[in-house]
Design a protein that fits this description.
Order of helices and strands: HEEHEHEHEHEEHEHHHEEEEEEEEEEEE
Strand order of the largest sheet: 1-2-4-3-5-6-7-8-9
Number of strands: 20
Helix content: 10-25%
CATH class of the largest domain: Alpha Beta
Structural class: alpha+beta
Distance between the termini: 47 Å
Largest sheet: 9 strands, mixed
Number of helices: 9
Radius of gyration: 24 Å
CATH superfamily of the largest domain: Alpha/Beta hydrolase fold, catalytic domain
Strand content: 25-35%
Length: about 525
C-alpha cells in the first residue's frame, strides 16, 4: 500500500510540474483573433470621392449607419496602390469590417512619405458618412505609411483637429521622416515586423527606421515610467506593444504579396517559402484584431496574447515549410517575440542614464553598456534604439552569474504584481562569447535585505530570442507571487545566472516592477 501511495504522489508531482511549465504556453479560452468574426452581415464597400484622391470605406450596414463606430484607417506603403479593379488591402479591410470596425482606406501617392493630407481627407469622409469625430480611431500604416500615420497623429494633436486617435499601428514600417509619438498623440502603439522583411531588412548602418525603431521611439522611458510609485496615476496614459515574427516578410501580414523592387511587372512575385502567405496573414489578422479589441473595446482577455503568454489555436497549427538556416528544421513551430511597455510600471534599471551598479559577478562574465548609436550594422545588427547592457559569459563547469543592485527608492515591490525584463540575444559573436544561434537558458533571482534568495527559471515564462537577421529582444514577466520566500518590500538585488558548460551573449534592458 505504501508503495502505491508513493507512486501516486510521484505521479501527482510530475503532473503538477508539467502543469506549471505549460502554464504560460496554453491559450486561455478566448475567441481566436485570427478566425474571429463578430458580424454575420455582408461586408460592403463604397468608393468615396474627395478633393484629394479617391478613398474606399468598408463596413457592414450596421457600422456604416452608426454615428460613433470604431474607425480603422489604413494608409498604404509605396507601390501598394488602389486601382479600379484591385485593392492590395482588401483582405485585411474585409476582415476588420467583419469584426465590426469601420475601415477607411486612404491612399498615399508616389514615394512621398507624407503623400496626402490624411486629416483633411478624413474630414471629407467623416462629413459624407456623418461620423462623429469623437469616435475612437486607429491609424494603421504599412511600410512608408508608418511615417504617414505617425505624422497624422502628431498633426491631430498640434493642430487640435479633434479626432479621437486611440491607437497607432505600424506594419513592417518605414519610419523615416516621422516624429516620435507619445501619449499626447495616441493612447497606445503596436509594431508588427518580420525577420525576413525584404524591404525593411535593416542591413545598413544608417539610422534604423524599421519595426524596432518604431517601437523604441514610440514614447520614451519617461512617458512609460513614473518616478513615484504607485504608477497607475501616470499621465498621459501610453501603452506600447511589438510582435517580431521569425521568418515573416513585408506585406503578407496584410494578406498581399511582398513587392520586390525591380521585379518584372508582368510576373507575380515569388511566394514566401519559410512561412506561407496564408499563415502570415493569419498572424497579421490575429495581432491587429486582438490589439484593436484590447485597446479600443477594452477586451482584456486579449492581453496575455499580446504579451506572449498565450497562443491561439490558429498560431499553434502554423509550421515552417523549410529549414531556417539556423538549425531549425522545416516543420518547426512558429516563433514570435513580444515586447511591451504598459503604463503602470516602475523602472528598476533601464540603462538610459549610463549609471548602474553591478553588485557582483562571476570571474568570466563580462558586461558593458551599449548606446543607441552603436552596433547598428553587421555583424551585430542591434536595430533597437535603446541603451542596454551587453552581458557575455564563458563556459564553466559551474553556474555563472551577474547581480544588479536595486536603487534604494525602488526596493519596495510589494505594491506591484510582476517583475519584467526585456532581454534578447546579440546577432553575431561578442569577443570570446559566441551565440551559435542556440536558445539560451537562464535563472533569475530576487535577493532581499536579509540576503534571502528566491530563484525562478526564466525560460518557464518566455523565450530569450534567438537572432535571425537582427538582434531581437523579448519582454518576459514573472509574477512576484512566485518569489514567495523573500521580503518583497525590501528587495536589494536582482541576479541572473547562466547554466554550466554554456556560453553566450545577451542584451538586457528595462528591468521593471509592473502593476497589472
Amino acid at each position: 500500500m505504501q508503495n502505491k501511495i508513493k507512486v501516486l504522489v510521484s505521479a501527482i508531482l510530475i503532473l503538477a510540474s508539467f502543469s506549471s511549465i505549460e502554464a504560460f504556453e496554453i491559450a486561455p479560452n478566448i475567441p481566436d483573433p485570427c478566425t474571429l468574426t463578430s458580424s454575420k452581415e455582408l461586408v460592403i464597400y463604397q468608393k468615396v470621392l474627395t478633393g484629394y484622391l479617391d478613398a474606399r470605406i468598408y463596413g457592414t450596414r450596421g457600422t456604416l449607419s452608426r454615428q460613433k463606430p470604431d474607425v480603422v484607417v489604413i494608409v498604404n506603403g509605396n507601390g501598394y496602390i488602389l486601382s479600379p479593379k484591385f485593392d492590395p488591402y482588401l483582405n485585411i479591410s474585409t476582415f476588420l469590417a467583419e469584426n465590426d470596425f469601420l475601415v477607411i482606406r486612404i491612399q498615399r501617392t508616389g514615394g512621398n512619405v507624407s503623400g496626402i493630407p490624411i486629416l483633411d481627407m478624413l474630414d471629407e469622409v467623416y462629413s459624407q458618412f456623418s461620423i462623429d469625430p469623437s469616435s475612437k480611431m486607429a491609424l494603421i500604416g504599412h511600410s512608408a505609411g508608418g511615417s504617414a500615420v505617425s505624422n497624422a497623429a502628431i498633426e491631430n494633436y498640434n493642430q487640435q483637429r479633434g479626432y479621437n486617435i486611440e491607437s497607432v499601428i505600424h506594419v513592417a514600417p518605414n519610419t523615416i521622416n516621422s516624429i516620435d509619438i507619445n501619449g499626447k498623440h495616441a493612447s497606445s502603439y503596436f509594431s508588427l515586423y518580420g525577420s525576413r522583411d525584404k524591404d525593411m531588412a535593416g542591413l545598413t548602418d544608417e539610422t534604423p527606421t524599421e519595426g524596432f525603431a518604431g517601437y523604441d521611439n514610440a514614447g520614451t522611458e519617461r512617458s512609460t515610467t513614473c518616478s513615484t510609485p504607485p504608477c497607475w496615476s501616470a499621465k498621459p496614459r501610453f501603452e506600447k506593444y511589438m510582435a517580431y515574427v521569425h521568418g515573416a516578410d513585408h506585406a503578407e501580414f496584410l494578406g498581399t504579396n511582398t513587392r520586390i523592387q525591380g521585379w518584372p511587372a508582368n510576373a507575380p512575385p515569388p511566394a514566401p517559402t519559410y512561412l506561407s502567405l496564408e499563415d502570415q496573414f493569419c498572424i497579421g489578422k490575429g495581432y491587429i484584431n486582438a490589439f484593436l479589441r484590447y485597446e479600443m473595446r477594452n477586451e482584456k482577455k486579449y492581453k496575455d496574447f499580446l504579451r506572449g503568454k498565450s497562443t491561439p489555436m490558429s498560431f499553434r497549427k502554423i509550421k515552417t515549410s523549410q529549414d531556417d538556416g539556423l538549425g531549425e528544421p522545416a516543420g518547426s513551430s512558429l516563433r514570435v517575440y513580444n515586447q511591451f511597455s504598459p503604463p503602470y510600471k516602475q523602472s528598476i534599471e533601464n540603462f538610459e542614464d549610463s549609471v548602474y551598479s553591478v553588485a557582483s559577478k562571476s570571474r568570466y562574465v563580462r558586461h558593458e553598456l551599449i548606446s543607441k548609436a552603436s552596433l547598428r550594422a553587421q555583424p551585430f545588427l542591434k536595430r533597437h534604439q535603446t541603451q542596454a547592457m551587453l552581458i557575455g559569459w564563458q563556459a564553466e563547469q559551474r553556474f555563472q552569474f551577474l547581480a544588479l543592485d536595486i536603487p534604494s527608492k525602488y526596493k519596495n515591490a510589494s505594491r506591484f504584481t510582476d517583475l519584467s525584463i526585456r532581454i534578447g540575444q546579440l546577432k553575431g559573436a561578442y569577443r570570446p562569447h559566441g551565440n551559435n544561434n542556440k536558445d539560451k537558458r537562464m535563472w533569475i533571482a530576487l535577493i532581499d535585505s536579509k540576503n534571502r534568495v528566491s530563484w525562478e527559471r526564466l525560460n518557464r515564462y518566455g523565450k530569450i530570442p534567438r537572432s535571425d537577421r537582427h538582434s531581437a529582444m523579448n519582454t518576459i514577466t514573472i509574477p512576484l507571487s512566485e518569489f514567495s520566500s523573500i521580503d518583497l518590500s525590501n528587495v536589494k538585488q536582482v541576479r541572473f545566472a547562466f547554466y554550466p558548460n554554456t556560453s553566450g551573449t545577451i542584451l538586457l534592458d528595462n528591468v521593471d516592477w509592473l502593476r497589472d
